[in-house]
């Protein structure tokens, strides 16, 4: 007897929570808020590899220092190499 009333009360509680959640999620701002909350919980449980790092591994990308001779030579040779490779493939 007690077990039946417990099942009925848990069922009523589940239906009530489900109905109130459905009513709350019927509003678009609430859906956006819920989606952001779930995304944040997911990020806390399983962080992405980008969240683990403090900074990017690139130290000086795309803008070499003018007095860094070796880096400037590498950049200039790289540009010549790609143009030469393209020209050879074209001919």
Structure in a nutshell:
By secondary structure, the protein is mainly alpha-helical. It has helices spanning 2-25, 28-45, 49-52, 69-90.
Structure notes:
This protein has 91 residues and is mainly alpha-helical. 75% of the residues lie in helices and 0% in strands. The protein has 4 helices and no strands. The protein is rod-shaped. The protein starts with a helix and ends with a helix. The mean pLDDT is 80. Residues 48-73 are annotated as: Disordered.
Number of helices: 4
Unreliable stretches (pLDDT < 50, length at least 5) are none
**Ends: how far apart?**
90 Å
- CA radius of gyration is 30 Å
Characterize the overall form. rod-shaped
The tally of beta strands, per DSSP, is 0
Largest sheet: none
What is the H/E order? HHHH
């Amino acid at each position: 007897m007690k077990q039946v009333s417990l099942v009925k009360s848990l069922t009523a509680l589940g239906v009530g929570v489900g109905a109130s959640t459905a009513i709350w999620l019927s509003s678009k701002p609430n859906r956006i808020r819920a989606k952001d909350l779930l995304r944040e919980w997911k990020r806390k449980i399983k962080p992405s590899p980008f969240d683990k790092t403090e900074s990017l591994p690139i130290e000086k990308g795309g803008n070499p220092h003018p007095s860094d001779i070796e880096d400037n030579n590498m950049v200039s040779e790289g540009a010549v190499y790609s143009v030469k490779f393209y020209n050879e493939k074209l001919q």
